[in-house]
Amino acid sequence: MIIREQCTCPLEVVHDIIKGKWKTMIIFQLKDGNTSLAQLERDIDQITQKMLLQHLRELQSCGIVDKVKTEGYPLHVEYFLTERGRKLLDAVLIMQEIGIEYMVEWGQTELLDRKGIRYKI
Q: Which of 11, 32, 33, 15 is nearest to 24 (CA)?
C-alpha cells in the first residue's frame, strides 16, 4: 500500500488507507470485537487467506487494526479495531446504510434477505 506523500486533501489519505476490495469489509467484520483470522475468512465471502493477510497488514501499518497473540500451541491470533479503526468504522457503517438503501431502491434485496440484513421498503 502506498500513501501519497503530497496530497491536496485529507480524504486522499483515507482513500489510500481503505482502497481495495476487502478493507471496508474487514473493518465491518471487526465491529463486534476481537476476531480470529479463520473467523474473518468465514465471514467474508470469496476472500483468500493471502489477500486477507495482506489487507490486515496494511490496515495494521496505518493504525486501523491491531492484533493480539496468545501463547501456546497452536498459536492463536486475534485482530481488533484500534481507536482510529473504530472512528473509521462509523464511516463504514454509514456506507453500509447507503448500500442497503441503494439495493432496496433498485430491487436487489435477494442478497440482503439471504444474509439476514434488515431493511425498510
A: 15
